Amino acid sequence: MERAGFLRRRVVDPVAQLLRIGATPHRLAWSIAIGAVIGVNPLLGSTTLIALAIAPPLRLNVIAAQLGNHLMYPVEILLFPVFVRLGITLFRTPRLPLEHGALLHAVKFHPLDTTRLLWRWEWHALVVWAVFAALAAPLLQRVLRASLERMLTGLHEEPVVEK
């Protein structure tokens, strides 16, 4: 039951509050969806800044975009190697030297070549992620919009309680 309480406090209640102050389900769904796809990009440590930079020009709700972004952090860690491996396969890049000590050996004795290779893997992973994001964001937005519209209907049926 603790997990349900956590999700209610950290996800449902903040979204409900945004709906109460007039955010439309359409704009809120896009905000959360864009935040979520940004939240799984393979450039680790960049998601908060990217979401902050993208939200205002797209006229998204910054709070909802950050909520979607931060909720995806565990998924980002899980998808990072997937994006890298798909990039390696798609672009036919040399495989990662993950054998015991191979990466450390490469960094120690060939630092410039290793740095170039790491950046190539990262770039290719970002290309794979961009294709994924272009497909996932509209799908996620549709699912979220339907859920948010139901949530908004439920909020209108709640009695107003003054404090």
Brief overview:
By secondary structure, the chain is mainly α. It contains 7 helices and no strands. The chain has one domain.
Written overview of the protein:
- There is one protein chain.
- By secondary structure, the chain is mainly alpha-helical.
- It has one domain (2-157).
- It is 77% helix and 0% strand.
- It contains 7 helices and no strands.
- The longest helix is centred in the last third of the chain and has 47 residues, at 111-157.
- It is elongated.
- The protein starts with a helix and ends in a 6-residue tail after the last helix.
- Residues 159-163 have low confidence and may be disordered.
List the SSEs and their pairings:
Layout: H1 2-20, H2 25-39, H3 47-54, H4 62-71, H5 73-91, H6 102-109, H7 111-157
Average pLDDT reading? 86
Return the string of H and E elements.
Answer: HHHHHHH
Number of helices in the DSSP assignment: 7
Strand content: under 5%
Index terms:
single chain; elongated; 163 residues; 7 helices; mainly alpha; disordered C terminus
